[in-house]
Hints:
Layout: H1 2-16, H2 29-38, H3 43-55, H4 59-71, E1 76-78, E2 84-86, H5 87-102
Helix pairs in contact: 2-3, 3-4, 4-5
Amino acid sequence: xxxxxxxxxxxxxxxxxxxxxxxxxxxxxxxxxxxxxxxxxxxxxxxxxxxxxxxxxxxxxxxxxxxxxxxxxxxxxxxxxxxxxxxxxxxxxxxxxxxxxxxx
Length: 104
């Protein structure tokens, strides 16, 4: 019985551990491209990659990834302020904004 409890603690410990290094506030395009390769069907990652492309002044690629996010499952995301928002809502709003800015 004690071995089972010890094993359970060893398995659960990494899940509750605080990461040694915090994730960057604005990950780079290359980092997010790598994450997208690992998990290509994650709408949240598509949104983050699109936003990274916008920060890198690559609006065409950003629009492609916002459209991709719309094609994927609608997932709940957390804003930097802790609010919840759907990935499709973010993508639609961003596409309107990017299209309006790029048409000027």
